[in-house]
Amino acid sequence: MKQRKYQKTMISIFLIVLVGLTFTMIMKPYYRVENRQKKINNFNIKNHINPLGWLRVQGTNIDFPIVYYNDTDVTEPKYELGWNYSEDRKLTKRVTIFSHNVLNVSSTPLITDKNHKRFEQLLSFIYTDFVKKNKYIQYTIGNKNYLYKIYGISFQEEEKLDYENTKINRKEAKKYIKKTLDDSYFKFDVDVKETDHLITLVTCTRFFGNTTKYSFVVDARMVRKNERIKNYQVTEKKNYKKIKKTLEGDVEDEKI
To answer: How far apart are CA 76 and CA 83, in angstroms?
Structure first.
């Protein structure tokens, strides 16, 4: 009798713990926003450079200041940083951020290598398994922390990249979003509207061989008011076959 009572007690305790863990997992945010304003202030004091903002990308070591292109040396920077060609210190309709990729330019990029700096780890987003686990970008500017959901990953011709179009109107935004969705190698279960705030991350690559004409681009739109920060579905599109071939060693300098 005592043994049966003990077994029932242990089963009850197990069920309570299981329910508690399940509830915790459900309630735990997929991405937790962390204020980066203090880091901006400390970087300014230490290096006498006042960043425009601070960038953090889920699943990577990208967690560094963003400076205005003309404020400091970005060709051979002394620090881990990215840059913007606009000197706006308040959030704009579209933010475009650049940084270097020196150590991860092959057709088989490494995933989150600890020795990588700046935007080297951005190339991790070419892998399906990585994208499925990491989908959020945080940008701190004007004493506020903004969160964005990734909706497009692609290669773009460098000469066609728009560096400074930060105050795009709805027509321009709609056109840009359509192109991004069409070119993306993944289909994200997230809707994007021309009224959304956008962020674009850009870095160089040699993914398709020695050609220098392409940049790797990650696009995201801002999390809307009262929108849950959660995981969402990602599937490969037909054009990802080209990526798979390249990852397998079939590298050609050709138009994508």
So the answer is: 12
